[in-house]
Design brief:
mainly alpha, single chain, 2 domains, two-stranded antiparallel sheet, Four Helix Bundle (Hemerythrin (Met), subunit A)
């Protein structure tokens, strides 16, 4: 998430699959959600890190798998274009004034692109009890290999998968909504960084 302490609002509607609105407080997050997406009702509230909504425990549907894969297929070319089109200087520029959550170590665009792959293949999947993959040494190769790995795992994933580890709760449905959100959110943040440099 974007804040060390904050709130996130999610929906499970097909047209909002993988959409998340974050803010420092619950009130600001829900107000932002309503201003962006219209009237809505809070169905469930969770406290703490990496828990799962009741809806997350329902088996993932084939439509949710396909929607997630479609979103990922739309996003990865955006990531690859950044590697291909930005200079090494642009990829590795660090804005010392940029505020990140305490756990975030991805300060440059290159770091953020690595973070996308590390998150999907070496955090989300194993925390859901699914196979991880080793990191490739080359970023462009890793972007392609990680995408192939995720696609393969999602096709074979038990739709009712539930995994608990180190106090976290992950399910097949939670994994899908998080995958559908994460890369798109990171790439939008990169676009904002690049726009701020102009």
């Amino acid at each position: 998430m974007a804040y060390t302490r904050g709130a996130a609002v999610w929906a499970f509607d097909a047209d909002l699959w993988g959409v998340c609105v974050q803010a420092p407080t619950v009130e600001r997050a829900t107000a932002s959600w309503r201003s962006m997406h219209g009237p809505s009702t809070v169905v469930e509230a969770l406290q703490g890190d990496e828990q799962a909504f009741g809806r997350d425990f329902l088996p993932a549907t084939d439509a949710e798998v396909e929607r997630t894969l479609a979103i990922l297929a739309e996003q990865r070319p955006r990531a690859t274009r950044l590697v291909d089109e930005l200079s090494a200087e642009a990829l590795d520029a660090d804005d010392p004034g940029r505020v990140l959550p305490g756990w975030a170590r991805w300060r440059t665009i290159r770091d953020m692109l690595w973070h996308i792959c590390d998150t999907e293949s070496r955090y989300y999947l194993p925390m859901t009890g699914l196979p991880a993959r080793e990191r490739d040494a080359d970023l462009r190769t890793e972007l392609a290999a990680s995408q192939r790995h995720v696609r393969s795992v999602l096709h074979r994933m038990p739709r009712a998968q539930v995994h608990r580890e180190r106090g976290e709760v992950w399910t097949a449905t939670k994994l899908l909504r998080r995958l559908a959100w994460h890369e798109r959110g990171e790439l939008d943040a990169i676009d904002a960084l690049l726009a701020a440099r102009q």
